[in-house]
Design goal:
Number of helices: 28
Helix content: 40-55%
Shape: elongated
Distance between the termini: 47 Å
Largest sheet: 7 strands, mixed
CATH architecture of the largest domain: 3-Layer(aba) Sandwich
């Protein structure tokens, strides 16, 4: 998909440059010799190292990520049983509060849930299989993009790498300036690691690639570009096209349309940044303007750019390098709270309607009071099992029966209590109460939400039997404990002969144990939790496959749970209550279909998709669009997650499509920032450039040049670029 072999891999080279030598000297390593090489020779280079520790430096888009993926593939192809497994891990995902083995284990378990199984290590300590593998150095971490960590975190990362041991195999990539700055800050380098730097392509190699890759285009289209490259080998255009990423972008943008001669227009593209921004901006409209990619998903280039821009800005906000559909719900916190409130109101209203239906079948409302024709226990515990449990319950309540009847009479007839405890008598008040509770529940749900990973069905008779036994035994013990507590709390204190020993006497009756057996039987309903297990998302054929498997698991578990609960309702309370519960289950199912359920990954994704589609931030067929973007070369797929082809493309799209620009932002720029900068320029009497860079998101800062005539250029992540500024 990355077109690395179309027409052939770019001849990326590396050497021990002065920058690499400086990084090597910072670690007090011996000067490495004979480390130069080319793309196809990365594996022999790595196998010559002892210990196997390599740092690859290179500028943005120089091919570091593709090079380490090539290394990982070659290592896997040549791997034997006693060799570590290479795993490419983006450095941006590193939480520096954890040490290197724990972080590696966390990344492994995120994609391979089976590695979270508990084992004993060599010392007998109980740990996870992933931590045991990382600690025993059976994992070769390929940490890609140290420079993508915040500036103040890079030194800590190097300290943790050194703490893990200088004999541990390791591959690390970074931009040169960021790595040298981190080494200078901590005063040491990565111990015993060889350091090489990826070199720019030669002008001749760039020309050969463009000719071969665009052979179907009319001859001579690139002549003006080649002439500029040869006449200005150190110029901005040569610098840009000798970078693998930019060279590939130029090939893609001008392969079938457009005139590459515009790249030599120095009035339009005066420096390297202008040329790179142009190629990055033209990439998405180009790949969506032609017939490349899937014919199953059609959209306009402007739509695709807007949707990809939202995705880039969302990833930029979360700080994660990859997009997982089960985390999309984090992009809609307000809608999530609304959905919780709506679910509360709808399900509460359904309970109100069904409760009224059941009550009116056994009585009537007279002047605000409920007059019943049947006893409450005949309604609630009139089923086959409920009849078996009634003698014990009757015995339990016998000594307080008069007080209970009095309390129920007051509750049913006193308007004050009725308004507080029987809100279904007043539907408007009940709905307002539900709405308030739903809003509070929604706020709490958003504040406490954790990511829910995809799951799959796994039906194992042993696991089902074990879960049923646990549920039955646990529910029996809990019920018995509650009964004893209630007896001790409510037993008459004046009856010294019956107070302390009343619970024991109660448990001596056969009806009591019969009731506990009935309660234990209802505990079997928990078997639904044993029917699923986390999905190994790294092995998913596609994100859509992982979504389908999780959706099947969600609805299967839901159906089993509701059928078991309906059966228990019939056994405990009889057919009428079972029918009422079945009706509620149908309504709850419809609510889940429409509003989702964030406790399951697939249904949380469905909940988020409604809001994003309504706002035009993503298409309804979200995964179809992302799969098509992958086929077009905009995204890359790793198991069940997507990443942008390059971090530069993600950053550029995020800058051009911010998540939100408020009126306050615009007012502050117009009324405060620009007048202040203009006054500064007048004071200095010459051009003044002010720049600040956000280390958490490189290039997501602002840069402003002002002079005596006013604002000359302006760059801001929320407003894009203006060069020169059209404003005074």
């Amino acid at each position: 998909m990355r077109q690395i072999n179309d027409p052939r891999p770019l001849p990326v080279r590396w050497e021990v440059t002065p920058t690499a030598s400086a990084a090597t000297a910072a670690a007090a390593n011996a000067t490495a010799v004979d480390l130069g090489g080319q793309f196809e020779k990365i594996l022999p280079l790595f196998l010559r190292l002892s210990p196997a520790r390599l740092i690859i430096l290179g500028s943005a888009g120089s091919g570091k990520s593709v090079l380490v993926i090539k290394l990982a593939r070659d290592l896997l192809a040549a791997r034997q049983a006693d060799m570590p497994v290479p795993v490419v891990i983006p450095a941006a995902a590193w939480d520096l509060d954890t040490d290197l083995p724990e972080w590696i284990a966390d990344q492994l378990c995120r994609n391979h849930p089976g590695l979270a199984d508990r084992v004993r290590d060599a010392t007998g300590k109980v740990t996870t299989l992933a931590i045991a593998l990382a600690t025993d150095k059976m994992v070769l971490p390929i940490i890609d993009g140290l420079d993508e960590l915040p500036k103040d975190q890079r030194g800590r990362a190097i300290d943790k790498i050194n703490k893990f041991g200088s004999d541990a195999p390791l591959v690390l990539t970074s931009r040169p300036e960021e790595l040298l700055a981190a080494l200078a800050a901590i005063g040491r380098g990565v111990a015993r690691a060889a350091v090489v730097e990826v070199l720019p392509l030669e002008v001749r190699q760039a020309e050969e690639y463009l000719i071969e890759a665009t052979a179907v285009a009319p001859a001579g289209r690139w002549n003006s570009v080649f002439a500029c490259l040869n006449s200005e080998p150190d110029g901005p255009l040569s610098h840009v096209l000798c970078t693998p990423l930019m060279l590939w972008l130029a090939r893609t943008v001008y392969e079938s349309a457009g005139d590459p001669a515009e790249l030599v227009d120095q009035t339009r593209f005066s420096d390297i940044e202008d040329l790179e921004d142009h190629l990055l901006d033209a990439f998405v409209p180009t790949v969506y303007a032609g017939t490349t990619g899937s014919r199953r998903f059609r959209c306009q280039p402007r739509q695709a750019e807007r949707w990809l821009g939202f995705l880039a800005a969302h990833l930029d906000r979360t700080g994660r390098p990859d997009f997982a559909w089960w985390r999309l719900i984090r992009a809609t916190p307000g809608w999530q709270a609304v959905c919780v409130a709506l679910r509360t109101v709808l399900l509460g209203s359904a309970v109100w309607a069904v409760t009224n239906w059941v009550l009116t079948r056994h009585g009537y409302w007279d002047k605000g009071s409920y007059v019943s024709h049947a006893t409450w226990h005949s309604i609630l515990i009139g089923g086959p099992l409920g009849i078996q449990a009634w003698p014990a319950l009757n015995q339990l309540l016998a000594f307080r029966a008069q007080q209970i009847h009095h309390d129920m009479h007051v509750l049913m007839t006193n308007p004050q209590y009725r308004a507080g405890f029987l809100p279904w008598i007043s539907l408007p008040g009940f709905e307002i109460t539900l709405a308030g509770l739903g809003i509070m529940a929604g706020v709490v749900a958003v504040a406490t939400r954790k990511d829910v990973s995809p799951r799959r069905l796994r039906v194992r008779p042993v696991s089902v039997a074990r879960a049923a036994a646990r549920g039955a035994i646990g529910r029996s013990f809990i019920t018995a404990g509650l009964v004893i507590f209630v007896l001790e709390l409510l037993a008459p204190t004046t009856a010294t002969t019956t107070g302390p020993i009343f619970p024991a006497r109660f448990l001596q009756h056969w009806s009591t144990w019969r009731a506990l057996l009935v309660v234990a039987a209802t505990g079997a309903t928990v078997i639904s939790v044993s029917l699923v297990t986390p999905s190994d998302v790294s092995r998913s054929a596609s994100p859509a496959d992982a979504l389908r498997v999780d959706r099947q698991a969600a609805w299967s578990v839901w159906a089993v749970r509701q059928m078991l609960a309906t059966a228990v309702a019939w056994l405990w309370a009889g057919p009428e209550i079972a029918a009422a519960y079945g009706l509620l289950a149908v309504i709850a199912t419809l609510v889940r279909v429409v509003l989702g359920q964030p406790s399951w990954a697939a249904q949380g994704y469905g909940e988020a998709r409604i809001w994003l589609f309504a706002r035009g931030q993503m298409p309804w067929r979200t995964l179809g669009f992302l799969a098509d973007a992958h086929r077009r070369g905009v995204l890359r797929q790793m198991g069940a997650v997507y990443q942008f082809r390059h971090i530069r493309l993600q950053e550029r799209l995020a800058v051009a499509h911010p998540l939100m620009i408020t009126g306050m932002d615009r007012w502050a720029r117009r009324e405060l920032l620009e007048p202040s900068l203009t006054r500064l320029s007048v004071l200095f009497g010459e051009d003044l450039t002010i720049a600040a860079h956000d280390e958490n998101a490189r290039q997501h800062g602002w840069e402003i040049t002002v002079g005596p005539a006013g604002l000359r250029s302006y760059r801001d992540p929320r407003f894009g670029s203006a060069r020169p500024s059209a404003e005074p």
